[in-house]
Design a protein that fits this description.
The protein is an alpha+beta fold and 379 residues long. 49% of the residues lie in helices and 12% in strands.
């Protein structure tokens, strides 16, 4: 782990097996000329409040992340290291979708580690940059995913309790496999076969195609609805006909559609990150074509889901009146159900509204007295 430097110049770590060397002066520090995209590494004494910000499993002193933060002398504990990337190298669609908490600039010494320019071949810091990006995106994506799914579940519980069901077992298994794959990536620099990621990939592919079919059907129903007013009972029946799920299962289907898409986006990044780690001679810029198109596709699908729910939320719902009239209490019941339906659409659409992304990627890592590393959530 980076120990605090003895001088004021910082240390540039090539991270390719060669020992680090003192920077020759200030040109490569804090805003000076850069040979290409560079990872900014800074450090400061850790705060006791950091204990509550731990994210993920603790990493061993021999982990891949620790190895690439090492310097040729024993690491010093009690330091928090902050690593910031200048761009997302293709992960922008996912970060715009889920947002990312910004981390304030921290005082203290810093060092720029080049992460490679297009066509430049191997560059110091590339492997570390891949790990930093994978961590930053996972922190942002898992946090937003939890918030969105909780909001959809809460909306259904309040407004359509018959539609509240447990998560699909395939989605639960995929979530667990992604967590295990993330830990493997940080510990060993590779994803082991025992994580179950291959099965998760196959299940997510099936669920994604299922989601596309349902989403297209829901969009057709929304587009065909009369903008001046649609009978609420009829609309609910039509939505329930898609996939033969029934109206009661609609909230859970929206929940599952979002979860399948966001999990698949996370899978795309983790698999591509491992691929780049297996080819350490490639610059970090090589990651962009591996992930950007697919991530943009998943973000577009979630955007469609958001627009469909938004369109339904502003659709006037009317009461079906049979010949001969209806009892006032039955009309009132239908009107109340329509109001709950519109509120359900509104709350689910609001849950899917993407948070703002600050445009920066930063990760903090703390060295523990045991020699282990602890990734920290944004402050």
């Amino acid at each position: 782990m980076h120990g605090q430097p003895d001088g004021h110049h910082g240390i540039v770590l090539p991270l390719d097996g060669r020992p680090g060397a003192p920077a020759p002066g200030h040109p490569e520090r804090n805003g000076g000329p850069r040979p290409g995209p560079a990872l900014l590494l800074s450090w400061e004494p850790a705060d006791d409040a950091d204990d509550a910000r731990g994210w993920g499993d603790r990493l061993t002193p021999a982990s891949e992340l620790a190895r690439h933060l090492a310097r040729p002398r024993a690491p010093r504990t009690g330091l928090a290291v902050r690593l910031a990337l200048p761009e997302a190298f293709g992960a922008e669609p996912l970060l715009r979708l889920v947002g990312a908490d910004s981390q304030p600039a921290r005082p203290g010494p810093s060092t720029l580690l080049p992460v490679g320019a297009p066509g430049s071949g191997a560059a110091p810091g590339t492997t570390l940059g891949v790990l930093v990006l994978a961590i930053a995106v996972e922190i942002a994506a898992t946090g937003t995913q939890h918030r969105v799914l909780e909001a959809i579940t809460s909306a259904a519980a309040d407004l359509a309790p018959a539609g509240v069901t447990g998560p699909d077992s395939r989605l639960r298994a995929a979530e667990e496999a992604l967590r295990a794959a993330q830990t493997d990536l940080l510990e060993r620099g590779a994803i082991g076969p025992d994580t179950g990621l291959d099965t998760a990939v196959a299940n997510l592919s099936v669920l994604r195609h299922q989601t596309h079919a349902r989403l297209s059907g829901w969009e057709r129903v929304a587009a065909a609805a009369a903008p001046s007013g649609t009978v609420g009972i009829a609309l609910r029946e039509q939505l329930g006909e898609i996939g033969k799920l029934g109206w009661d299962a609609f909230p859970a289907a929206v929940h599952g559609a979002y979860q399948a898409l966001i999990l698949d986006a996370r899978r795309i990044l983790l698999v591509a990150a491992e691929q780049l780690l297996r080819s350490p001679s490639r610059p970090l810029t090589a990651l962009r074509p591996l992930i950007e198109p697919d991530l943009a596709g998943r973000a577009a699908d979630i955007g469609r889901l958001h627009r469909m729910l938004t369109a339904l939320s502003v659709l006037p719902l009317t009461v079906r009146k049979r010949s001969g009239g209806m009892l006032p209490n039955l009309i009132a019941d239908q009107a109340a159900t329509n109001a709950r339906t519109q509120a359900l659409f509104t709350r689910m659409a609001n849950a899917l509204h993407p948070p703002s992304w600050c445009g920066r990627i930063a990760v903090e890592v703390r060295a523990l007295p045991t020699g282990e590393l602890q990734v920290l959530r944004p402050a």
